[in-house]
Amino acid sequence: MVDVDEAAPADIVDRLLWRDAQTMLGRHNTADRRGNCVWCGWHWPCSARRLAERADAVSRRPWREAWTLRHDLNSLPAAMTDRGRYHNHRRYAD
């Protein structure tokens, strides 16, 4: 059985990479009043946000580019990705 993601745009080549990018974009979506990411606490736009924006763009390109970026996503610390979703890790205490 094939699982088709109806929500993904038609121009997406790598749906898994696109879905991961959307999750990360949703998490690292805004800055707090001090200019830090509300999810990871790093200066906005944080490296995870920039990587997610790149993943979103690359998910529409040939698979070789998507494969390289997928490796970059998997090497991020758990606090910056969906793997750390149960903990709102911040760099500094409020």
Please give the alpha-carbon distance between the first and last residues: 48 Å
DSSP strand (E) fraction?
A: under 5%
Structural class: mainly alpha
Low-confidence stretches: none
Average pLDDT: 78
Number of helices: 3
Summarize it:
This protein has 94 residues and is an all-alpha fold. 39% of the residues lie in helices and 0% in strands.
Sequence-ordered SSE layout with sheet pairings:
Blueprint: H1 15-27, H2 47-58, H3 63-74
Helix pairs in contact: 1-2, 2-3
Give a verbal description of the structure:
It is a single chain. This protein has 3 helices and no strands. The chain is mainly α and 94 residues long. The radius of gyration is 14 Å and the shape is elongated.
Key attributes of the depicted protein:
94 residues; elongated; mainly alpha; 3 helices
